[in-house]
Amino acid sequence: MKTQKRLAMAAIACGLLSGAALAQAPAWKPSRPVEFTVGAGPGGSLDQVARTLQHIIEQQQGPSFVVVNKPSGGGRVAVNSLRQRPGDAHYLASWSQQWLTSYLIGDWDESPTEYTTLAMLVREYVALAVRADSPIRNVDDLIRKLRADPGSVSIAVATALGNHIHIGAAVPLRAAGIDVSKLTVVPHKSSAESIISALGGHVDVVAATTPSLVGQLEASRIRVLAISSPTRLGGLFANTPTWKEQGVDAEFSSYQGIMAPKGLTAAQLAYWEQTLKRATDTAEWKSFVARNQWGERFISGKEAAAFVEREQSEMRSVLRELGLAKH
């Protein structure tokens, strides 16, 4: 009997020790450098976000980062690095709203929603601009021409029909009563090329996100007609009215975020949520966002995943009106 009692006490003691060991077990953290794949070339907004986060996280004694640019395939090559490594949280990739639209128009075989959305970080706005001497002086001029003939004004976008820039131009024009399926939209390889095309008179209007317009706006070579933000921006765009200010009840934001492979554990998800939140709470990050005239919006976990699902549904609706949705 005494022997049985001793064995029982020993078992209880072992159980308590095991429980204590589990409670004290360290949460997951990277054990080697993290590869951050950017589905765009160096210098663009996706690349800037990745490298700014890299600097801040390394400064905060986080893991070392290797930023790898893989612009080919419209983002598909970048996402391949995640597809091949399920469950491995040492691999991250940039998330762009363009990945959703690429799937919806049939350029991608699978939706980005099939991967892990770690966080949404910023929202950016689309502006319509013309060269400084354009006969299209304001939004009223533009709408008047498009109502008379939706195909009479050529609009440059980058980099593809149906992407977030195309949608950012179509949403307010649709709200203004324009048949957006009949617009003359001219895709270019980059926003830099779109702007040059407008400056050269090859297209009438250019649609682009705010960072791409800063240089030409500073040089007074372009005139920005409207911005898709909910309220007027600051800095160089302080004099640019929103669509709503000009009687068009519309706004549009495209988002940037971070994605990871499928199958991450709760500990891995918690690590990246905490790390990204800490990085985006810094003065350096906030200054970076303000400089680009973006809007801060950090959401993570289940909220981020639900957000992406909603965005996909909304983008599908617009793309159907444009006659471009295939999924």
Describe this structure in words.
- This protein is of the alpha/beta class and 327 residues long.
- The protein has two domains: 34-124 and 254-321, D-Maltodextrin-Binding Protein, domain 2 (3-Layer(aba) Sandwich), CATH 3.40.190; 126-246, D-Maltodextrin-Binding Protein, domain 2.
- 43% of the residues lie in helices and 20% in strands.
- The strands form two sheets. A six-stranded mixed sheet has the order 2-1-3-10-4-11, with helices on both faces.
- Helix 4 (97-104) crosses helix 11 (301-321).
- It is globular and about 60 Å long.
- The chain starts with a helix and ends in a 6-residue tail after the last helix.
In brief, what are we looking at here?
43% of the residues lie in helices and 20% in strands. By secondary structure, it is of the alpha/beta class.
Task: Write the H/E string, N to C.
Answer: HEHEHEHEEHEHEHEHEEHHEH
Give the CATH level 1 class of the largest domain: Alpha Beta
Q: Note the main sheet.
A: 6 strands, mixed
Number of domains: 2
Structural class: alpha/beta
Q: Helicity, in percent?
A: 40-55%
Parts with pLDDT < 50 across at least 5 consecutive residues: 5-25
Shape: globular
CATH architecture of the largest domain: 3-Layer(aba) Sandwich
Would you count the extended β strands for me? 11
Q: How many helices does DSSP assign?
A: 11
**What is the CATH H-level superfamily of the largest domain?**
Bordetella uptake gene, domain 1
Distance between the termini: 71 Å
Mean pLDDT: 90
Question: What is the third-level CATH name, the topology of the largest domain?
Answer: D-Maltodextrin-Binding Protein, domain 2
How much β-strand is present in the residues? 15-25%
